Amino acid sequence: MKFINYLEKISGVSIFPIISLVLFTAVFLLVIIYAMKTSRESISEMENIPFDDN
Amino acid sequence: MELEKFSYDNKIPKLFAIATITWGVVGMLVGVLAAFQLAFPVLNFGLEFTTFGRVRPLHTNAVIFAFVGNAIFTAVYYSMPRLLKTPMWSNALSKIHFWGWQLIIVAAAVTLLSGFTTSKEYAELEWPIDIAITLVWVVFGVNMMGTILTRRERHLYVAIWFYLASWVTVALLHVVNSFELPLSALKSYSWYAGVQDALVQWWYGHNAVAFFLTTPFLGMMYYFLPKAANRPIYSYRLSIVHFWSLIFIYIWAGPHHLLYTALPEWAQSLGTTLSLMLLLPSWGGMLNGLFTLRGAWDKVREDPVLKFIVVAVICYGMATFEGPMLSLKNVNAISHYSDWTVAHVHIGALGWNGFLTFGMMYWLIPKMFNTNLYSRKLASTHFLIGTLGIVLYAVPMYWAAFRTYFMMTAFTPEGQLQYQFIDVVQSIVPFYALRAIGGSIYLIGVFLLVYNLVKTAKQGKFVESEEASAAPLTKGYKAPAKAHWHEKIERKPVMLLVLSFIVVGIGGLVEMVPTFLIKENVPTIASVKPYTPLELHGRDIYIREGCNNCHTQMIRPFRYEVARYGEYSKAGESVYDHPHLWGSKRTGPDLARIGGKYPDSWHFNHMLEPTSMAPGSVMPPYPWLFEKTINIGATNSKIHAMRKLGVPYENGYEAEAVNDLKKQAEKITASLEKEKIKIPSDKEIVALIAYLQRLGTDIKAEKTSK
User: Fold this and answer.
1) Neighbouring C-alpha atoms within 13 Å toward the C-beta of B225
2) B124 vs A: CB within 8 A
3) How many CB atoms lie within 10 A of CB B57?
């Protein structure tokens, strides 16, 4: 169960966190845009779900 | 549309609530004991089952898995059916979940006090219990998913997203962190070693905080706060944004537990950066909670439930501000290994987890018994006492941490360290006493809660189930034209689960894959060799007695630290440490280079009676190590297991291992005899001395041979 060293050096691997950052930023922006675009009705419906069972 | 009739069960939530409160009292009592043990070591009672090293992990496991765990299940089993307009999918699974979890807790208590431990923080339970946890967790997940898939409310309310994300991430964390090779019924070695093990453990440890102590409680907040305040959450839009950001960012924060250690620099930086970013989604949650009460603060003045919830959310905000600050390397240089970490943990635990649970209970129990709370005044008194307890816990710990830092880093004008470690301990003991009092005060508040809720239950009548009705979901649902993109995910629970899993998976992959697969990250040191058989036994004794709860084995590259402990620790030195023992708190000094510092007789006397070698020490004595014999029969299975995990013992070494062990043991007893100490060479203390004398000596060997 030894770990095989697939790579000798780490230089250049920084592309992975950069991809993650770009991906995260893109998804974050998309989520904000769509959160802002939701209609007031839908929001009101969703936030009242805990009260529906009374 | 025809309405279907069904009912919400209260029996299972009641069981979980009783378990929560019971284990809360037990776990906190153990915590109070542990706290007093540090100030008054006589409270270790001279017994192996009650030493701090075994009591402390019992406390952490009890308050996290027994108290907080049952609180989570109380919240889920009560709120999910009502949010989804359907009963829990399977009553049988609910019962298996409940009883299975309680059995796990009992097994934990028995095994931990008996010394069966992996030493991995918040994952100390040995492999059979790990398997049981996995099975019960799957039962929980199937029950949850079944309920969601048979729901009558199409939209998944935000609390449900948090419950789902918590479930899937805890599953991932537990499975990955628990990769271990069993050698016997109650002993295993971690698959990982050294640096890699440290990273996996703190990826797990921090995310246990995230997805066991935080996200399920955010789900709790999103349900019980609106119910208690009778108004919807401040901003549903904010809850969408902060949910996804939180679960993505949290996973990366693990390395902030390893700053200035031998973890590769790039991983440390990632941990710091993402921990700082984490402040925003965390505060998104806090603000969402607090602003829900805008214009209704007069309600908070009257209602103890709201008082507890508000302070809980404020403590959440405090802890999630402090956390990112502690992730800055310059701050961490002061706080790491100190009582600051302990203070930080307890603001979150006593404030966020404790208070939110109490708020929930004060709201839930009267409701389930169809009556009013027995005494609002008593609940308000509990609130005041609890708050005082939190303050009296945290402030002495902050003071102690700074005092420790200044003393540990002080140099005389001649350039020598001004204080010995024992001087620091002695000056901190009064703060340990104060903290123990703070914790006791908090516990007294909990006793008030128990009394109040028992009286409430007695004056009311338990409502076993509540009737309800709702229309079933129509098949072939078409979203209205204006529905937004995120609503699609809210309607599709399986998609939500899979997406959450992918999102939480990214951080772990980015940090762990390079650490594991790239050679440069763990430089090998030629002179570092595997432990001898005797030293392996000693190491397992060190683990059994929980020495790593007070002693670290990781010297940081600071002048004051190197002056005190020796050359700073390199990643390559712990490659054969399955699991690693870097430690996270220095109640006692670092041991990374203790090897060769003191003669064998010093260790002999110190383990028998610490104050004989270190007057004023708070370390308990370990007399049973001088009675018990080394379990020689286990030697071969230890060697075999270590070889399987990649430690280069020669094939067939088992044939000589026991002989080597005996030879090394006799050397030690011979050197002890020279100092007039007689001990048979098969006693456990000999193994422990061998292990301690080995620590940190490998690289010195390289230096002398050059």
Assistant:
1) 33
2) no
3) 27
DSSP state of B5: E
The residue ranges of every structural domain in chain B are: 533-705
Query: Cβ(B359)–Cβ(B223) under 8 Å?
Result: no
Between CA B18 and CA B449 the distance in angstroms is: 12
The answer to whether the CB of B462 falls within 8 A of the CB of B365 is no
Q: Which CATH superfamily is domain B533-705 in?
A: Cytochrome c-like domain (1.10.760.10)
Q: Is B472 on the interface with A (CB under 8 A)?
A: no
ipTM: 0.80
Report pTM.
0.94
Residues of chain A whose C-beta is under 8 A from some C-beta in B?
A: 1-10, 13-14, 16-17, 20, 23-24, 27-28, 30-32, 34-39, 41-43, 45-53
The C-alpha of A11 sits at a distance from chain B's nearest C-alpha, in angstroms, of: 9
Q: Over the stretch B416-434, which tens digit does the pLDDT of each residue have?
A: 999 999 999 999 999 999 9
Nearest-Cα distance to chain A for B520, in Å, is 5
* B551-596 per-position pLDDT tens digit: 999 999 999 999 999 999 999 999 999 999 999 999 999 999 999 9
Dihedral sign from CA coordinates of B444, B446, B450, B451: positive
* Residue B324: cis peptide before it, omega within 30 degrees of 0: no
478-537 of B, contacting A, C-beta below 8 A: 482-487, 490, 506-507, 510, 514, 516-521
Interface residue B189 vs chain A (CB under 8 A): no
Distance CA B521, CA B575 (A): 12
